[in-house]
């Protein structure tokens, strides 16, 4: 089934040529509960990130209803206030609601201490709320570092240089999130920081994917609620190229993204698209299997669905 989006959203014009997007007017006539997913979009190029995530979410056979969330304590410099006011809502507007899933994106603030970020207090409120009001939470890149720090006290570490390019990843543990994955696959990364691996054994986490250059790249909590993706599977083919050109325009000494350009002319061959689609499909499927039909009985941190079975004895309708 299709993803539900406002017909005026910029992504709608792109998605209609690639997947089946259902406008709200038609969706309300269908007798089925959509999977409710909220997205905290912290990326500077918000419309680009919307397009990337919505395209991947829309490939699921399930009907999905997306709510875009903004941080009130932060003023976006790259996205118009008109766009934000029209398509985004503040967290406080939905803080009493419950969702099947939440996505927290990356953000270009890796070098700053978490406590120095203007929306850190508000983001902490969102992360606390997510543990009782969402079945699954997917943290991406800086969002993953923020989640690991907030939930488990795992600190970030500064790299000597920007980790920038497409890197080989190795699957080291079987898990529904990476069902169907090759033993080795490629994933884009773009970050100045990593995580303190020495602190991982102290947290209720499982490392599913790692890489020689990247370190742990995908982690999941033991209760299956929280997933932490340190890379950017959602990136489109040209995204790293666009980031590189922006860095050069700012006078930054960013090296060419590794394992990315296939020739001197800057041609890019996408080597992660298939695994990106598979990962998001797996995540949506697992969320659907574990979430209750009635969100008012949404599991908390002390209980969760396993397949179709609720550990307290209730069944998904």
TrEMBL record:
Keywords, sorted A to Z: Acyltransferase, Amino-acid biosynthesis, Cytoplasm, Methionine biosynthesis, Transferase
Alphabetized CDD domains for the sequence: GATase1_HTS
Compartments reported by the entry: Cytoplasm
Organism domain of life: Bacteria
GO molecular function: homoserine O-acetyltransferase activity; homoserine O-succinyltransferase activity
UniProt site positions, description: Important for substrate specificity: 190
Enzyme class: transferase
Pathway: Amino-acid biosynthesis; L-methionine biosynthesis via de novo pathway; O-acetyl-L-homoserine from L-homoserine: step 1/1
One Pfam entry name: HTS
E.C. code: 2.3.1.31
Signal peptide range in chain numbering: none
Residues holding substrate: 162, 190, 246
Listed GO biological process terms: L-methionine biosynthetic process from homoserine via O-succinyl-L-homoserine and cystathionine
Location of the active site: 141, 232, 234
Site (Important for acyl-CoA specificity): 110
Annotated family: Belongs to the MetA family.
Function: Transfers an acetyl group from acetyl-CoA to L-homoserine, forming acetyl-L-homoserine.
Name assigned to this protein: Homoserine O-acetyltransferase
Source species: Enterococcus gallinarum
């Amino acid at each position: 089934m299709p993803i539900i989006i406002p017909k005026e959203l910029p992504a709608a014009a792109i998605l209609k040529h690639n997947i089946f997007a259902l406008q709200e007017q038609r969706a309300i006539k269908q007798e089925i509960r959509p999977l409710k997913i909220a997205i905290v979009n912290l990326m500077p190029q918000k419309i680009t990130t919307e397009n990337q995530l919505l395209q991947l979410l829309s490939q699921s056979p399930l009907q999905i209803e997306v709510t875009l969330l903004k941080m009130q304590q932060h003023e976006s410099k790259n996205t118009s206030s008109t766009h934000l006011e029209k398509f985004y809502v503040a967290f406080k507007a939905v803080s009493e609601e419950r969702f099947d899933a939440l996505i927290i994106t990356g953000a270009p603030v890796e070098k700053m201490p978490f406590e120095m970020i203007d929306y850190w207090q508000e983001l902490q409120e969102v992360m606390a709320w997510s543990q009782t009001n969402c079945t699954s939470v997917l943290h991406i890149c800086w969002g993953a570092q923020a989640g690991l720090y907030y939930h488990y006290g795992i600190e970030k570490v500064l790299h000597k240089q920007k980790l920038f390019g497409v890197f080989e990843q190795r699957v080291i543990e079987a898990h529904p999130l990476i069902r169907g994955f090759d033993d080795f696959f490629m994933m884009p990364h773009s970050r100045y920081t990593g995580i303190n691996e020495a602190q991982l054994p102290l947290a209720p986490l499982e490392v599913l994917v790692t890489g020689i250059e990247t370190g742990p790249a995908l982690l999941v909590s033991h209760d299956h609620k929280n997933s932490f993706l340190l890379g950017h599977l959602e990136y489109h083919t040209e995204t790293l190229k666009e980031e590189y050109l922006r860095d050069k325009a700012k006078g930054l000494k960013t090296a060419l993204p590794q394992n990315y350009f296939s020739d001197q002319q800057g041609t890019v061959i996408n080597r992660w698209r298939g695994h990106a689609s598979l990962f998001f499909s797996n995540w949506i499927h697992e969320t659907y299997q574990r979430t209750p039909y009635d969100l008012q009985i949404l599991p908390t941190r002390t209980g969760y669905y396993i397949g179709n079975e609720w550990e307290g004895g209730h069944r998904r309708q």
